[in-house]
Each structure stands twice: as structure tokens, then as C-alpha cells.
Amino acid sequence: MFTKKSKSRKASSETPSTTPVLAMKNVNKTYQVGKNAIPVLKNINLTIMPGEFLIILGPSGSGKSTLLDHILGLEQPTSGEVWMCGTKITGLSQNKIAKLRYQHFGIIFQRPDWVNSINVLNNVQLPLAIHNVNKKVRRERAWEKLKEVEMTDHAQYPPNQLSGGQQQKVALARSMVNDPEVFIADEPTGNLDSVSALKVMEIFKELNQERHKTMIMVTHNIEYVRYGSRTIYIRDGMIVEGASSMLLNK
Amino acid sequence: MRLGFSFYLSAANLRQRKLRSLLTIGGLAVGVSLITFLISLGFGLQQLVRSQVTNVEALSVLDVSQGASNLLKIDDKSVKNFQNISGVVIVSPSISLSGQITRKDQTTDVAVYGVTQEYLDLEGMKLVAGSNFTNQDAKEAIVTSTALNLIGLEDSPTTVGQDVTLRVMVPTTDTTGTVEQVNLVPTDIPMKVRGIIKDPDLTVVYLPLKILEDLGFPASYTEAKVRVGQTTDNKQYNVAKVKVADQSQVPSVRKQIEKMGYQVSSVADTVGQIDKIFLIFEIIVGGFGAIAMFVAAIGTLNTLTVSLLERTREIGLMKAFGATSTDIYQLFLSEAMTMGLVGGVVGVGIGVGAGLGVDAGLKYFATRLGGQAVSVFYTPWQFVALMMAMIVLISLATGFYPARRAATINVLEALRNE
Question: Are B317 and A95 inside 8 Å of each other by CB?
């Protein structure tokens, strides 16, 4: 999928550091609905090291997405600590977390969202534009990433006119544009047909194995377990110990 | 996020929703054009009335008279006193009396003014035919059209050079023993019509001041005109333009002359009244425009609020990518400003254009019907600048509420919004 040029990325990303890209310590999340307290995450302890391909598996309503929101710093835990690439993000302001997120993470949502008034190329540039990257540089980088996902032919299209698979490829290009160490994908194949889903998973595999990027992917599809280097299983807001090896043996 | 990128996104968003943007900007443009048109009409009428009343030069001229006092006289000594006041450039006295003008067998009563050429200049007299006095010894008269018509002469260039006779009552002192008596002796002065002033009401004859003084009128004048300017520079007429700026000195000079007991009036008094009346007019018409503007501003607020609701996921996305609350504020305020600026420029353009159009039409009809072509619309650049500043401020104010809502929106809620 990637061009030869794109395979040789910066040296730093090829030598994984020993600092966890993510660490969660005794994280609990409880939502208050009226007088009822509903626990969604229960005592989560999780460390993700650079270069891992972590699959977060679990049924609907198990707390996968809430866990991901905590990893991204979009949600603050009721108790416990979350560390993002060596920085404790619990209690940090949203603006500071947003900056860290931009520096370290590339995000792929289940349903790609777009700024519909601008074309594909400008949408791919969006994270860079938000962080004041020079117009020429961001344009070049956006084009480069579109080339890597073979979507340059659609650069001038409005994003919502693309098929689901094409949109997910563009979303991938957008997540790569800031050259992150970690890719976080929330059910990235959820809305795709099997062929498109396979293509997306192959790209993830290449990113992990050839560029040594850390991948964190939330899914409820057991088939994708084979892509990961580690799988955790979430049920009722808890990581179920031993479930991953059981799944792998299936 | 850079401001340029915010404006780029705003423009892209407005382009995407063309009809809605067009209607919102159109509403703003209507409000702005209405205000521009009406206020320009106010300014135009004000300027027209002011130009009919006086010229700019006259605004720095004070008319000094004896007033009700019989003890005070404006004589050479008082003229010198006036000249010594800081800021005074020229003092030009005059003598006024009543008399009669005759040509052949036709006679009419006239007001006679013995004046200098400077006096006529300060008065802002405009001759419709003929020219100014040759010199102060020349027996020449500048006569109003009404006076000429009453003695059978037309107010046309053919009248210039015609002979007329002016009869004035000359005071002569008859001393018998210790009793001194002043008698008024009728004296005829043969004169030539030198210039004509258009005046539909007054019968006035101006003649050189020196002629009256030579006949025996004392150098005690009924009225003097005082011009205020820079005393350090005595090249008075070379600095005529500066004198307009020195209008600020008029009140202090006026105060000092009034302190001496004289009565002072100025065209500026009348102009001040005119300005006050037009200010009220402009406020009223501006108020009507402001109502239209208010409605347009509500439209902008509505458009931005709808835009916010439609773009909630976009906002969530941008925040997830690291956009700060300031970035979101900037995004919405730049959209409001873009609408305001476009609406403002288009509105001012339409307002000024409509004014010019109406002006051109009025001039055309006025000329065709034999009237004078005048401008009734005037748009000062300061007003345009103020208008643009106001529209930007109004836009920012209307954009503030949706911007605040967008900036405080929760990322997760925004991303889950359907």
C-alpha cells in the first residue's frame, strides 16, 4: 500500500523508546444519571509500550469507547491516573491535552467526520492548519499522505462524496499527517465492506510492522485479533484477565 | 489556528451555503445601504444649505457693531484696538446710511454702505456682472439687482458703466456763537455702476468708503468686519486657507471684542443652528436605518446559530485534533466578520451609488427645467469608515453568542451529535 519513499520515515520512530505511550493506573469512571451512579470503567490498569499493536476487544456497551476516550484525554477519570507519552494528563486543561494529542496521536474514528465545506486535500491538512503549520509545508505533507493511501486522484473532491472505504483511507491519511507515534482507531472497519476493511487493516499492519508505529484499535470483531501483538478484552468496564489468550487459541 | 485559515474556512462555509449566506449578507447590505443613503442625504442637504448661507471664508469673520450703545463708536482707534487682538488678521470698517438712487426720472430708496474692497471680500459678495472698485477714489457703485430693476435697469452686463446719481444726506456743522448745530444737507453724487450683486429683496448700494469720508462723514463707523487668522504672518490673503483652521480662534476674539462693549455676530452662529437642525435630522434618519440594521443583525445571529447546530460534529472534530476554545471563537467570529464586511462594503456601495444616481437624476431634471443643478447627497469618507467600523462591531457582537456556545461545546458530545 505505501510507496517506497514513504517506507523510510524518520529514524527516531524506528527505535522504540522505553517510555510507555500510555499508562492507566487504577482508572475508574462513573457517570451520574440522576441519583444513580453508573460505573463504566472499573479499576483499569493498562500500559502500552511503543511498537505494540493493541487490540481492545469487547461487546457493545462494555466500555471500549469510554476507555478510548480516556486514552485520548477526551474524558477525565473519576479516579486514577492517565499518562500520555510520559506526561500525566489527569487534571490537565483540555487545551494542553489537545496539544499533546496532536504531538503524539493520530486518530481514526469509526465514522470519519469532515469539514464538509473544504476538499479532501484541505481536510487532510486540517490538524496541521489547526497547529499553525506553514501553508506550503502542510500542503506538501497532506499530498504525500494522500499518495501513500493512493487517494491523490480524489484530492479535490468534497470528502462526503467518497465511498466509505475511500473516506476511511483519507481519514487514515489525515491521521498520519502530523507524523504521530501512536495511532488510535475506534472501530475503523465498522462501516466498511469486507474488502475495504481488509485494505484498512493491511495499512495498519504495515504502519506497525514497517514503521514501528504503536497501534491501538478498538473493535468488536474477533477476526482482527490476528493483526495485534496484544489483545485485551473488556467486559462490564473491566479488563478480563486471560481472555485474550483464550481468544487467540480459538 | 492562524487567522488567515479561519477566514479561509469561513469563506468556504459561506460558499457552501450560498443561498443562506446571500440572504444574510443581503439583509446586512440593505440595512447599511439604507443608513448610508439617508445619512448621505442629511449631509448633502446640510452642505447645500450651508453653501447657500455662506462660504467657508465667512466662518472666520465676525461682524462688529455699536449695538444699542450710543457712547461706543467704531472709529480708527477702536479699529486699531481690534487689530491688536491676538488672532485678528484684518479689520475692515464701514459706514452705513440711507439714501436714494436715481436714473433719469426713476428714483428708489436704498441703503448706502461705504466700504473697502476688503469688506466686500470678507462679506463674500459674488458679482453677477461687472467688477470690483477700481480704487477707493473712484466714484463707482456696486448695486443690488433689485435696486437696479426699480430704476429701470436690467441686472445684466449691459448695465455696467451706466450713470446713476446717488443722493445722501451729508452732516454739516453750523456754528453760530457758542451753539453748534449739525444739519443734514442733501448731496448728489454722480456715479457709474461698476458691479451688480444678485439679490431678490434688498436695495443696497456699496461705494468706496473714502468717497463718504471725503464728503465729510466722520471716521466713526457703524460696523466693522474682523477677520481672524494668524497674526504672526501678515500675508493675510496668502494664508487664506489657514484661516479656516483658525476658526477655533473665533470664540476668544469674539469674547475680547464683546468685553469692549461691542455687539458681535457671525455667520457661524447661523451655521451652528443649521448644523444642530441637521444633526437631529441625521439622528432620526439614522434611527430608521438602525432598525433595519438591527433586523439584519438578528438574521446574522440566526444564521450563525443554525450554522453551529449543523457543524457541531465539525467543531468536535477540530477540537479532537487540538483546536482550542480560542480557535473556535476565532472561527465563528471570523465568519461573522466576513458576513459583516461583505455586507458593509456592498451596502455602502449601494447607498453611495443610489445617492449618486438620485443626484444625477435631480441635476438632469433641474437643468432641463431651468433650475440650478445642485447635489443633495454627500458621503464623507469619515462616515464610511465609521459605518464599516460599526458593521464590524455589530457582526462581532452577533457572532459572540454562537462562538461562545461552540467554544464551550464538549468534544465527545459534539462527536456523538447526529
Answer: no
